[in-house]
């Protein structure tokens, strides 16, 4: 049984807010919710901490909300502190402005076989 979107109450909820776990169906509903999001864990010291992320993952795992692929630990998973450093990189931010790269990345997100698509993408001149 699918849960209904808690924002528009019209569609089936496909996603959960990473902050308060409210269920929503689309980007539009997420943006609307984000304006008034009340953090479920606002009383915790460091909301971006690795510990909090592990707690959220454990909660989702216990509730059976994660697929088998989401439960797998892979060698290509990047540690949280390295992702945070990437988020601060001006060089990376400038690279991500490239429209060709953005189209390629969007295609990867929805791909059935992202590994093969990534292999092909790495042959593009932008990666030399």
Explained architecture:
The chain has a two-stranded antiparallel sheet with strand order 1-2. The chain has seven helices and two strands. It has 128 residues and is mainly alpha-helical. It is globular. The chain has helices spanning 27-34, 50-62, 68-71, 80-87, 90-95, 99-109, 114-121; strands at 15-16, 23-24. Among the domains are: 1-40, no CATH class; 89-127, no CATH class.
Offer a few descriptive terms.
128 residues; mainly alpha; two-stranded antiparallel ribbon; 7 helices; 3% strand; globular
Tell the overall outline.
Answer: globular
Spatial separation of the terminal alpha carbons = 48 Å
Q: Total number of β-strand segments?
A: 2
Compute the number of helices.
7
* Largest sheet data: 2 strands, antiparallel
Mean of pLDDT: 76
Helix proportion range: 40-55%
Major sheet: arrangement of strands: 1-2
Order of helices and strands: EEHHHHHHH
Low-pLDDT stretches are: 41-47
How big a fraction of the residues is strand?
under 5%
- Structural category: mainly alpha
How would you concisely characterize the structure shown here?
The protein is mainly alpha-helical and about 130 residues long. It has seven helices and two strands; from the N terminus they run E-E-H-H-H-H-H-H-H.
């Amino acid at each position: 049984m699918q849960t209904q979107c808690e924002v528009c109450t019209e569609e089936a909820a496909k996603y959960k807010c990473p902050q308060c776990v409210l269920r929503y169906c689309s980007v539009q509903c997420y943006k609307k919710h984000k304006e008034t999001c009340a953090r479920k864990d606002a009383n915790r010291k460091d909301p971006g901490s690795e510990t909090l992320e592990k707690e959220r993952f454990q909660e989702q795992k216990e509730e059976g909300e994660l697929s088998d692929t989401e439960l797998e630990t892979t060698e290509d998973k990047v540690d949280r502190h390295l992702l945070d450093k990437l988020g601060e990189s001006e060089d990376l931010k400038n690279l991500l402005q490239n429209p060709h790269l953005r189209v390629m990345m969007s295609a990867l997100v929805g791909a059935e076989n992202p590994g093969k698509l990534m292999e092909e993408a790495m042959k593009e001149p932008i990666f030399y």
